[in-house]
Amino acid sequence: MLLIEMGRLRATANGVVSMGDRFRSKLLCGTEKIVINTSCLAASLWQLNSNRVKMVVLAASIISKSGKALVSRQFVDMSRIRIEALLAAFPKLVGTGKQHTFVETENVRYVYQPVEALYLLLVTNKQSNILEDLETLRLLSKLVPEYSLSLDEEGICETAFELIFAFDEVISLGHKENVTVAQVKQYCEMESHEEKLHKLLMQSKINETKDVMKRKASEIDKSRIEKSIYDKGGFTSLQSMGSGRIENSFSDMSISSGGGGFGSGSGFGLSNGLESSFSKSKGLPPASATAPSKGFGMQLGKSQRTNQFLESLKAEGEVILEDVQPNAIQSRSAAPPLIDPITFTVEERLNVTLKRDGGVSNFDVQGTLLLQILNEKDGHIQVQIESGGNLGILFKTHPNINKELFSNENILGLKNPSRPFPTGQAGAGLLKWRMESVDESVVPLTINCWPSVSGNETYVSIEYEASSMFDLQNVVISVPLPALREAPNVKQNDGEWRYDARNSILEWSILLIDNSNRSGSMEFVVPPADSSVFFPISVQFTAANTYSDLKVVNVLPLNEGPAPRFSQRVQLCTENYQVA
After folding, report:
1. Burial zone of 387 (CB within 10 Å; 0-12 exposed, 13-18 middle, 19+ buried)
2. Sign of torsion, CA 464 530 163 152?
3. Cβ distance 458 to 528 under 8 Å?
4. Number of CB atoms found within 10 A of residue 184's CB
5. In DSSP terms, which residues pair with 12 in a beta bridge?
6. What is the 3-state secondary structure (H, E, C) of 56-110?
7. Which of 153-167, 218-232, 281-295, 428-442 holds the top average pLDDT?
């Protein structure tokens, strides 16, 4: 029988014995007696416990090859100067060509693992269990890529707090917790059903408040319209128009014999529109002396309904253009007037389909040369051109053009020189050309899209690279998105962006791409979605030069007199440019 007394009071037959007393317990085994000094055993256990307290991880850090601290989490009381000195001394201790994963000094031990161009480092004391430290380091190395999209200095600094929170879940007071990667991610997310329910309730209250606001605004607008009608001599509200109360209101008013209007001296502005209503209610034919015109009151009612519709569209994120008169629309849409008597237009249209994983699926360039002549007397000419000598371009002339003259001298002239070129604003086609290729080097703009799901979010990184052949203008990159209730969270953007809520499209706009910004990127976050949702990506842009580099050098008059003045317009534009 083993009698061991330690750490508490115990009643015995001889009295009460405390922990501080030196007494002996006897182990009786057969005829042998082993005497154990319980005070020495208690001292040994206390020493073992104190050693465990000292066996701790001092810090977990991510540093660069030069010793620059990017993220560092200390688990014991330690000054900043102390930890920075320890981290700065580490690169000097790591030798080249060694296969060890730890380095020891007089006071601490470094347990490390290279992570691309960085070091994942544990600083422990020398009494620490190196096997447990290696297991801790292995778990941390799995967590770092989960929270940092790119394992470089910029990516680590952007997710510094997420990494620190993850380190705290793995190491507590310097000792490793028994957790897995999935458990750490779950603890850091801290999803709460009560919080979600609270947010849904708050959102429903906000939506109800918005509906009430819209109804109140509609009532206020309606009251303003009715008041304006009263101020202009109206007799009833808009709600009474067309009802039986109109007939009663007319009984107190005199109809002028001059025909057509009510109370000619009253300045009533609804005479034509309301006269037809009055005639219908009395069974009389409408007056035919004046042509029917839109009533002023009906215009107000139409404006009210239109304003409500436009406000609802604006609330959905649509861009609404103000109404303009038809003649203004025609003047805007009309092309600018021609100043020079002869104008040439060189235009190339791109039809390109790029693969989302790289490569060209379809590349087609179609170009035309158009001639516009204002006066018929300037039509007796020949046109001398030159091109850039691109062997991949095939030219095709109009059937009325002298093909032999064009092949030998690069001059466009009619087969019958006595006939002039046609005149007019439409323009006559002189030359067409086409270019096809599967070489990715001829593509003016490539788009790379990288969607990646992390937790309950999808991070989408888009990058463009422009060729040095062209300076692109008015670039618009349209990315389809899943159905969203709110605009995406744009983290980084080189340019401007706009969210089209109705079509669920994110438009990325760059005004000009030249030598100063041949590449750019954009990053945004949306709820979890499949990567195929973000394709096809549509691209639009224009450029001031073309693949053919075709130019009009000179205009040769066939009649006597000086050569007429001419101008030329050169443009490269997209017709169908997609990344699918």
Report:
1. middle
2. negative
3. yes
4. 23
5. 15
6. CEEEEEEEECCCCEEEEEECCCCCHHHHHHHHHHHHHHCCCCCCCCEEECCCEEE
7. 428-442
The helix-helix angle for 296-315 and 271-282 (nearest 10°) equals 110
- Copy the structure tokens of residue 25: 């317990």
Count the neighbouring beta carbons within 10 Å of the beta carbon of residue 335.
6
A 10 A CB-CB count for 191 gives 9
End-to-end CA distance of the chain: 82
Q: Is the dihedral of CA 83, 84, 85, 88 positive or negative?
A: positive
What's the mean pLDDT in 167-174?
86
Maximum distance among all Cα pairs of the chain, rounded to whole angstroms: 145
| Amino acid identity at 143 | L
Q: Please report the pLDDT score of residue 53 as a whole number.
A: 45
| Residue 106 CB-density burial (10 A; 0-12 exposed, 13-18 middle, 19+ buried) | exposed
Residue 517 has a pLDDT of 93
Beta carbons of 503 and 531 less than 8 angstroms apart: no
Q: What is the per-residue pLDDT across 315-338, written as a single tens digit (0 to 9) for each?
A: 655 555 554 444 443 443 344 555
Residue labelled with tokens 């604003």: 425
* Packed helices 193-231 and 296-315: angle between N→C axes, nearest 10 degrees: 160
**Which position has the higher pLDDT, 241 or 82?**
82
d(CA 355, CA 358): 5
Residue 296 is predicted with a pLDDT of 43
Q: What is the DSSP letter of 376?
A: G
pLDDT for 514 equals 93
| Distance separating alpha carbons of residues 168 and 238, to the nearest angstrom | 69
At 148, is the pLDDT very low, low, confident or very high (cuts 50, 70, 90)?
confident
Q: Which residues have CB under 8 Å from 133's CB, separation 6+?
A: 57, 102, 109, 111, 122, 124
Provide the sign of the torsion angle of the four alpha carbons 6, 11, 12, 15, taken in this order. Answer: positive
Residues 569 and 345 sit within 8 Å (Cβ to Cβ): yes
**Which amino acid belongs to residue 243?**
S
| Amino acid at the residue 415 | K
Rounded Cα–Cα distance for residues 402 and 3 (Å): 122
Q: Among positive and negative, which fits the CA dihedral 295, 301, 302, 307?
A: positive
pLDDT of residue 556 exceeding 80, the answer is: yes
Average pLDDT over residues 70-82: 87
Range with top average pLDDT, 13-17, 47-51, 259-263: 47-51
* pLDDT band per the 50, 70, 90 thresholds, residue 535: very high
Could you tell me which residues come within 8 angstroms of residue 102 by beta carbon, excluding any fewer than 6 positions away?
A: 109, 110, 111, 112, 130, 133
Provide the 8-state DSSP code for 527. Answer: S
Mean pLDDT over 440-448 rounds to 94
Structure tokens at 207: 């939506």
Plot region of 33 (φ>0 → left; ψ -120 to 50 → alpha; else → beta): beta
Whole-angstrom distance, CA of residue 450 vs CA of residue 461 = 5
